[in-house]
Structures are given as structure tokens and as C-alpha cells.
Design brief:
Order of helices and strands: HHEHHEHEHEHEHEEEHHHEEEHEEEH
Strand order of the largest sheet: 2-8-7-6-5-3-4
CATH topology of the largest domain: Aspartate Aminotransferase, domain 2
Distance between the termini: 46 Å
Largest sheet: 7 strands, mixed
Structural class: alpha/beta
Shape: globular
Number of domains: 2
Number of helices: 13
Strand content: 5-15%
CATH superfamily of the largest domain: Type I PLP-dependent aspartate aminotransferase-like (Major domain)
């Protein structure tokens, strides 16, 4: 038997449950099964033509060589302009922008620039802490832990629309707090942080930075910002002057512009610290992937300045789908659903069915059991909530980035499956 082994940090790394169920659904479809997949967090729309045309023209013009690691000047300038004018983030120039290969890559690079390997810290210095309201996207915790952080969960639930209170954040902050991760609109919860709450959290961070946590930084993941339809205004916490220069705003073109496969993510960070962080990200990224694909940079200014009409059409479609799935889920006995107000996810609580057995004989003791049985017996792919943390263990994540016909068919199958549990 071989004595070769995989590095422990990777061997211990938990695979993405979202990707796992998405891939299983695809495999079943390839095998000819009539699978209805609600696993993938990507819009079903095509990328707007005006964006594709810009990339095609750039490719034909011969833009196929290496580019600056953090992006070409025009793209970085377009993003800085967007963050300044739309998000009202101060002191944000092209030098404060890093473009990476998707939002996940942006998160990975930022975390590794902020968090120290615990073994590299001076003797006796505690591990740096990452405050994370949960349920939260499945990649935040693994990436932060891989970079050396210790996750401090802040629990939320349906009663508060999956948002924490400022007081909860305050109680979670310690002298070891290094990073607070916020995500609004939320994956997996489909809800949003109201502006007033974000301002309260900003005040807590500002006070803590002057007292017990001088190194605390906020990472605000706003990749779903343009997919908001529930009457709550999107607000960037990086626009609050008291903490603007300790906020990293993460975004990208994947979700709002239906460009998941293009792999365009970006981060913006204000002021002197922001420039220092972006330079560090450039150093690390230069040893990883360098630039993203050269000829797609031309699509970034076009998307940000000329595609708002297409974005609005997609947002309207998601709003209609949200209304439909909110109505359908709320009508299923035993399912507790919180109204989706942003992104394209529903996150129903299905724990009232735990302890029952499926028609196929599978005991349902957790969300994972239910997701497995749903896929095997009803050919419906939904993501189990355990890996989202907190009360996620009682929930399924349902992506409604699909047609209304598929939503109706999927809800019909779900309702039938649940009604047959004994």
C-alpha cells in the first residue's frame, strides 16, 4: 500500500454540499432521469448579448496575452466608479480594486491576506477569530478556517428573518476578533439586512475598534445586491464613514448579470488600509492565478454601465418566482417558510417531518436524509442545510433560478413526497 498522503489541511476540508448535489443531479439527468434541480445557485438566463459582444470583440482584437494581476486599468476604474457612485463607498479609486476569478476566489485571497496561520503567531497569542452569522454560505467557514481563522458563529433564525441583532454582534467581539463576515442579500436564506440594522452593526464595529478589537475588519459580500425585490433597500456597510476604511466589499458579475461561468469577482477596500490590502492581494494572486482571462475584461465596464435594463428584467423575473415559491411553500402543511426578499433562494424549515420514514423506506432524521430521499425517490434536487451552520440543520435550500413551470412541478413533487412520509 502506498505511504503517500494528502496534506491534512486539504484532507480535512469539507467538500461543498451545494456542488455535490448539483453534480449528482446533473449525473442523473445524463442517465436519462427526469430530475428537477433546485441545487445550483446560478441564474437560468443567458448572459446579455451586449456583454458577450464586448468580450467577442476583445478576443477578435487579439487581447489574448497576460494582463496585470489585479485587472486592466479600465475595468478597475469602472468598478471603482460603480462602488463610489452606487454604493457610496468613499476613498475608492482603481488602486483600491482587485479583480479575481469569481467571488469565491476573491474571498479566498482576502482571507489569506487578513488571517494568520495559528502556528505562525507568537507563542501564547490566541488564534484570530472570524465572526459569522449563521446560517451562511457553505464556503465562508472552510475558506476562513483554511486561512487560519477560528469561526465564531452568531445564530439567527426564521423569527428574525435570519438576521442577527447588533447586540449579538457586540457580544461576539473579543480582542481576538479579526473578521466579521456579512452577506446581504443572503445565500442561503434569501433575506436581507435592513439599512438601519447595518448602521447599528457599523456603530458596534466602530466602538469595538476603538476599544477591544483594533484589528477588526468587516467583509461585506454583496454579490446579490441587484437581486432585491422585497421592499428592503440594499445598503453597503462600507459607506458608513466611521468604519469605511475597515470594510472590504466583495462583489462580482456572476449573479446579477448571469455570468457565473465567466468567473469575474472583485473586492474594493477604502483608504490607506484598503490600498495596502489590495496590494497584498495582488502579491498573493500573482503566485496563484495572476490575471483572469484577458479578453473578458472588456465586458466589465460594459456590464456595469450598459446592462442595467437586462439586469432589471432578470430581477423582475426573480421577484415573480419568489412570489410563486413563497406561496407554494407556505401552502404545504408542516413546512415553515420565510418570505424571500433578495437573491433567488427559499430556505424552508422542514424539521416537523423529522422522525418519519419515506415511501422508499428511508428514515428522515435530518435535512441531509430528506435531501437524499427527495433526490432518490422524487428526483428533486434540493440542498440540505446542515453545512450552512446554526439552524440550517432544519432546513432545505431551494434555488428558484429556474422557470415558474419547474417551480410548480418541483413544489408538486415536494408536497407529494412530504405527504407520503409515515
Amino acid at each position: 500500500m502506498s505511504t503517500l498522503h494528502i496534506a491534512k489541511r486539504v484532507a480535512d476540508l469539507k467538500p461543498s454540499v451545494t456542488v455535490a448535489f448539483m453534480n449528482r443531479a446533473k449525473a442523473l439527468k445524463r442517465a436519462g432521469k427526469d430530475v428537477l434541480s433546485f441545487a445550483a445557485g446560478e441564474p437560468d438566463f443567458d448572459t446579455p448579448s451586449i456583454i458577450k459582444d464586448a468580450a467577442i470583440a476583445s478576443l477578435k482584437a487579439g487581447n489574448t496575452k497576460y494582463m496585470p494581476t489585479l485587472g486592466d486599468p479600465d475595468s478597475r476604474a469602472a468598478i471603482a466608479k460603480k462602488l463610489t457612485e452606487e454604493n457610496h463607498i468613499p476613498n475608492c479609486t482603481p488602486d483600491h480594486i482587485a479583480i479575481s476569478a469569481g467571488g469565491k476566489h476573491s474571498l479566498f485571497v482576502a482571507c489569506h491576506c487578513l488571517l494568520d496561520d495559528p502556528h505562525a503567531l507568537p507563542a501564547g497569542q490566541p488564534q484570530q477569530e472570524v465572526i459569522l452569522p449563521v446560517p451562511a454560505w457553505v464556503s465562508y467557514a472552510p475558506i476562513a478556517e483554511l486561512a487560519g481563522g477560528k469561526i465564531i458563529e452568531v445564530p439567527t433564525g426564521p423569527d428574525t428573518n435570519f438576521t442577527p441583532t447588533a447586540e449579538q454582534i457586540k457580544r461576539a467581539i473579543t480582542p481576538q476578533s479579526r473578521l466579521l463576515i456579512l452577506n446581504s442579500p443572503s445565500n442561503p436564506c434569501g433575506t436581507m439586512y435592513p439599512p438601519a440594522l447595518l448602521k447599528e452593526i457599523a456603530a458596534v464595529v466602530a466602538e469595538a475598534s476603538r476599544t477591544i478589537a483594533p484589528n477588526l475588519v468587516v467583509l461585506s459580500d454583496e454579490i446579490y445586491e441587484k437581486i432585491a425585490y422585497g421592499g428592503i433597500e440594499h445598503f453597503s456597510i462600507g459607506s458608513v464613514p466611521d468604519i469605511a476604511e475597515r470594510v472590504i466589499t466583495l462583489n462580482g458579475l456572476s449573479k446579477a448579470y448571469s455570468m457565473t461561468g465567466w468567473r469575474i469577482g472583485y473586492t474594493g477596500a477604502s483608504g490607506d488600509f484598503g490600498k495596502k490590502l489590495i496590494n497584498a492581494m495582488g502579491t498573493l494572486q500573482g503566485q496563484m492565478s495572476t490575471n483572469i482571462t484577458s479578453f473578458i475584461y472588456a465586458s466589465i465596464p460594459v456590464a456595469l454601465s450598459q446592462a442595467e435594463g437586462e439586469v432589471a428584467k432578470m430581477r423582475d423575473a426573480f421577484a415573480s418566482r419568489a412570489e410563486l415559491i413563497n406561496r407554494r411553500l407556505s401552502a404545504i402543511p408542516g413546512v415553515r417558510n420565510v418570505k424571500a426578499t433578495g437573491a433567488f433562494y427559499a430556505f424552508p424549515d422542514v424539521s416537523s417531518f423529522f422522525g418519519k420514514t419515506s415511501k422508499g423506506g428511508k428514515k428522515i432524521n435530518a435535512a441531509m436524509d430528506m435531501a437524499e430521499a427527495l433526490l432518490e425517490e422524487a428526483l428533486v434536487a434540493m440542498v440540505p442545510g446542515e453545512d450552512f451552520g446554526g439552524c440550517g440543520k432544519n432546513h432545505l435550500r431551494i434555488s428558484f433560478a429556474c422557470s415558474e413551470a419547474q417551480i410548480n412541478a418541483g413544489c408538486d413533487r415536494l408536497a407529494k413526497f412530504l405527504s407520503e412520509l409515515k
